[in-house]
Amino acid sequence: MALGLLARYPVTGSVGEAKSITFFFASLASDRMSGMVPDEKGGQAARALASVVALWMSGNVDFSRVVTAATGALVDGLDSPALRDLAGRSRGENRFEMLDLVESAFAELGEPFPNRDDNSITMWKLRLRCGDFLAGAITARNLAIWGHSLFGHGGPEAVQELVLLEDLFESSWRFEPANDADRRELAREIELATAAAQKFLALPFP
Model pTM? Predict the structure, then answer.
């Protein structure tokens, strides 16, 4: 984990994506969720899947992440023919055909199709990005930029610690660490972002 967080460049490709999605769904199996009845846990898994679909619809992630998210939803107890079909697809599928399949999966699960502008989905987007960061797939600065761009200073109190990170990071170095002072600053950024991401992921979500 430490090596992943200290990497200056984000992990890219299917390995990095699978790692961050795995971390994200693993957070759903935390002690907080272990006491839930199946319907409650299924609801959390459905909203987690919706967040990934919303990112895909917005062009922020490719289809392979939807496939991985569908697999995670099955592991967390959701099930339907379309969801199983979705979990078995590849990243190169036709977008329009897959949109129909994704809509069918949500219909079969009795869940509303995600609105990419819905505030609850936006919170899940940030939750997903926190998982990306803790898995080493994006940098602390990437996470700070995401938090600030999604909500800004007028957003919910729950996200403000992440939003304020960008203000803090703006005053420090912007490029590769060139000396020990820069490396200490990078380590400090990672420490602050890690604490903020872990705190955000620990919050209960509706």
Answer: 0.59
